[in-house]
Amino acid sequence: MPDFTSALYLGMRHDHASLRPWAALTTGRPAVLQAPPGEATVGARLAGLIGCEAAVLAPSTLHLALDLLDLVAVGRVALLVEAGTYPILRWGLPRAAVRGAAVRGFAHNDPAALAAAIRVVARQGRRPVVLADGLCPATGAPAPLPDYLALVEAHAGLLVIDDTQALGILGRAPAAGRPWGIDGGGTAAWHGLWSPALMVVASLAKGLGVPVAVLAGSRTLIAACAAQGLTRTHCSPPSAAHLAAADRALTENRTTGAARRARLLRSIERLRARLHAQGIGVDGGRLPVQTPRLGIRAPTIHAGLAAAGVTTVLHRPRDGHPPALSLLVTAHHQPWEIDRAAHLLARLASRPAPRRAPEDPR
Hints:
Layout: H1 39-50, E1 54-58, H2 61-72, E2 77-82, H3 87-90, H4 93-98, E3 102-106, H5 111-123, E4 127-133, E5 135-136, E6 141-142, H6 145-153, E7 158-162, H7 187-191, E8 198-203, E9 213-217, H8 219-228, H9 230-234, H10 240-277, E10 282-283, E11 289-292, H11 298-307, E12 313-315, E13 324-328, H12 335-349
Parallel strand pairs: 2-3, 2-4, 4-7, 7-8
Antiparallel strand pairs: 1-9, 5-6, 8-9, 10-11, 11-13, 12-13
């Protein structure tokens, strides 16, 4: 039955028979002592795809975020965090604050707000390190990275983006006939950006189907992270299986990625068209996470879809917003699955909204 809960956007699976063999799953050595076999090759391929000088890998973006913030949040530094930034980049903030870094937020996708925040911390003699998502799945809008980067460069700062949602999807040279661009290098590649002041953190788990993460950027900073990262000292590095899968994913992206992205985009546009035809607005733009505007009916419709054999994602309420229902569209979805989900959702949405229970007057 139709399943819209998987974030394997390009439909890459990497069964064991498709991977190159390995002599040992792990060397037993920390990466700071000896990089695992294959990391240098995969890192170089990822750096080329993203458009950076160098890259290093880790089991997760959390490992990389902790190591990077430990490295850059020293001295007179201010960490400027865009509203809505994915939690993992935020999890290193308390540690950085304890070590003396200032932490300040700024409004989502708002270069003027960032400029104002930078002026404040510059008067305090602090260097700005900006944390943001490359792509917002809620709106489908890429971050205004050229504006952010120009502001950061003017103050000798650093821009760090979590590009997990865009890696494998967006890429360089977007045009009218190819809104996502080509190659799947991510949001910075889509904008045509490269700078020593830009660092990209991304998991390969969504677009490329491998639960491993990459940090890409300047050769100097990547070398420092590789040599000094505490998680590379105290945590296990990516296994040989993960590195083999990442290597295969990059080959698949080069050979079949364009066809997978085209199929995915057609499915997204089909779902949006079916829902719009029924008068249902959809957030998420032309990207895999599609969120119909259902208001307080989202939990009821989620349950109704599940009862009919269509699984979707129900987001917990937060920041005063009601729960939301999303469909994660992948390159594997067939037209009939898209049509069935849209038909059932529209039928459920046409029913009267549930009444709220009256408040107890006591």
